[in-house]
Amino acid sequence: MDANKKPFKLVSQDRRIKKGVVAGSMEELMQKARTLFNLGSENIQIVLEEDGTEVLEDEYLLFLDNNTKLMILPSNNQWNPPIPAFDVTDCSGTENSNYNPVKILQKLVRSPGSIALLSEEELDVVSSFTSHQNIGIPQTEVEYLIGACQRELEQKKKIKDALDLVELYQRAKEQSELHP
Predict the structure, then answer these.
(1) How far is CA 105 from CA 70, 99, 127, 128, 152, in A?
(2) What is the mean pLDDT of residues 96-123?
(3) What is the DSSP secondary structure assignment for residue 117, as one 8-state letter?
């Protein structure tokens, strides 16, 4: 390996794609990143994966440790911290539940539409989640998702009550037809 080149680990913004490269300049690194991540001639930023510090100069790039993780950000995108993995024992109020509210919230951040697929118990766990620890999701977003889960839970309960009422009505109708 050329003495002026170093190995780096490139990661996509969602941290799902990872590539190892060797580069000796920002220009070389950006060219390889565009090729590996199929970004064509799109403007990109290269930032430290761990804290979002933008890397702008060759001197700084070569000062970094070997195998430093660098995130490739397409133009006008911003760095977000990784969502930490939590064990259910890290969450207060979940001792009697099989569901981890932090994992459910993380899932909702990635796929908000999946709220419709959550069970009543999952919605209830998130609705009653109270944690003041940093779970890697902005507090305002956590509060919004908790509120959305509460509304979805209320809606599911209303639908269940309506279906129970329809079933009760049908049984009463059948009984009245059998015993007029």
Answers:
(1) 26, 11, 10, 12, 14
(2) 84
(3) G
